[in-house]
Amino acid sequence: MTPPVVLTIAGSDSGGGAGIQADLKTIEACGGFGTSAITSVTAQNTTGVQGQHLLPVEEIEAQIEAVIEDFDVAAVKTGMLATSEVIELVVDHAADLPNLVVDPVMVAASGDRLLAPEAEDAYKSLIAEASVVTPNADEAAVLTGRDIDDPEAAERAGQDLVEMGADSALVKGGHVPGDDVVDTLVTDDGVTTFRHARIDTEATHGSGCTLSSAIATQLAHGDDLSTAVGSGIDLLASAVRYNVDVGEGPGAVHHLVQTRNDAARGSTSEAVERVVSALVDADVSPLVPDRGMTVASATPYAETPDAVAAVEGRIDRTMDGVRPNRGVRFGVSTTVARALLAAREHAPELRFAVDCRLTNAIEGALSSLDGPAAVYDPSERPGSVSDDDTAQWGVTRALETSDETPIAVVGREGVGIDGRVLLFAADAADLIQRVESVQGAVKNDG
């Protein structure tokens, strides 16, 4: 194994959510080998910074030189540098620091100041050495003197930073008002914006460190700037969305969210196979729609259908029971996959789904389940929703209008061929039990 080496020059966070700790977690998660030069030791946790001790500049320099003398460093990122002397030290070594990503850390997420006021001007000399500088709106305002309250102002600030000498500037939009977060990347060649939904959470501790480390690691892999920035932003969006609830404060971003999600693909696929095997053994023929039955399972942090495993080609009725006509794959059976993802927006614990036919007997059998059922009427579907998205829209509507989280959703596209019953569960065993319960109730009723 010869992963690219990434050096982080930053402060230590005893709370583990930001600083060197966040950097090294993210670098490893993105496939790099993390090395470090610690500038400052902070006593902090999720509620704030209780103390800060700056290491002697010569000790910081010794760490930098020890790393660059032994390792083939492919990228470098800076975090908390604290004083003008440390910033100048990094500038002096800039010629030996490739793909330099400068995160101008000035204030912690808790509001505690992490940069001496006189050091703000010193940052301008470091920005001139940067491959990319990644300020948030508040930091960009300090560096450029602009008020940044919309994406257009962020673009102008980015242009100012490029004029200071940076190869590029990514002005982050997390502190800019708006329903979406708009991150603005400015280079001499133009402007690229990255947009994603704003997450309603205060657990953003370590977000800047995570993003800059991810970008540096992707650059170390050889990605072009736009790809590296886009990949880093996608990682951060998931890390904030699936933040970790630790400590008494708001918590921290989930640095390993994509790694954990990728690692779960094997067990997720195997769980679908177990469900399919159980349904075959139970011969659930009465529940199988004419179009075939789909069993699907999402990875723990699935966002898109390609993170949902399902039976490719569906489960069909045969002369002697039911059989899957193909194996389990990710990114197939997108109708049920999207419906499952829609359910998870309201109940993230739901990871499994199966679609059954809709008959009067099957709908009546839903009362045998250990949770409520909900109904959506496709005739109420807005014109902007396509036929393919009806189930996704319907599940969203059913969950939004239910007092409790339903474990079954009935779509009245019609009884028989065009209708569907979606059963949901948090684990494979519960899904199997619910399918068998419905089947048993149908048989007893018959």
Automatic annotation (TrEMBL):
<keyword id="KW-0067">ATP-binding</keyword>
<dbReference type="GO" id="GO:0008902">
    <property type="term" value="F:hydroxymethylpyrimidine kinase activity"/>
</dbReference>
<dbReference type="Pfam" id="PF10120">
    <property type="entry name" value="ThiN"/>
</dbReference>
<keyword id="KW-0808">Transferase</keyword>
<dbReference type="GO" id="GO:0008972">
    <property type="term" value="F:phosphomethylpyrimidine kinase activity"/>
</dbReference>
<protein>
    <submittedName>
        <fullName>Bifunctional hydroxymethylpyrimidine kinase/phosphomethylpyrimidine kinase</fullName>
    </submittedName>
</protein>
<keyword id="KW-0418">Kinase</keyword>
<dbReference type="GO" id="GO:0005524">
    <property type="term" value="F:ATP binding"/>
</dbReference>
<dbReference type="GO" id="GO:0009228">
    <property type="term" value="P:thiamine biosynthetic process"/>
</dbReference>
<dbReference type="InterPro" id="IPR019293">
    <property type="entry name" value="ThiN"/>
</dbReference>
<dbReference type="InterPro" id="IPR013749">
    <property type="entry name" value="PM/HMP-P_kinase-1"/>
</dbReference>
<feature type="domain" description="Pyridoxamine kinase/Phosphomethylpyrimidine kinase">
    <location>
        <begin position="13"/>
        <end position="254"/>
    </location>
</feature>
<dbReference type="Pfam" id="PF08543">
    <property type="entry name" value="Phos_pyr_kin"/>
</dbReference>
<keyword id="KW-0547">Nucleotide-binding</keyword>
<dbReference type="InterPro" id="IPR029056">
    <property type="entry name" value="Ribokinase-like"/>
</dbReference>
<dbReference type="InterPro" id="IPR036409">
    <property type="entry name" value="Aldolase_II/adducin_N_sf"/>
</dbReference>
<dbReference type="InterPro" id="IPR004399">
    <property type="entry name" value="HMP/HMP-P_kinase_dom"/>
</dbReference>
<feature type="domain" description="Thiamine-phosphate synthase ThiN">
    <location>
        <begin position="272"/>
        <end position="436"/>
    </location>
</feature>
<dbReference type="GO" id="GO:0005829">
    <property type="term" value="C:cytosol"/>
</dbReference>
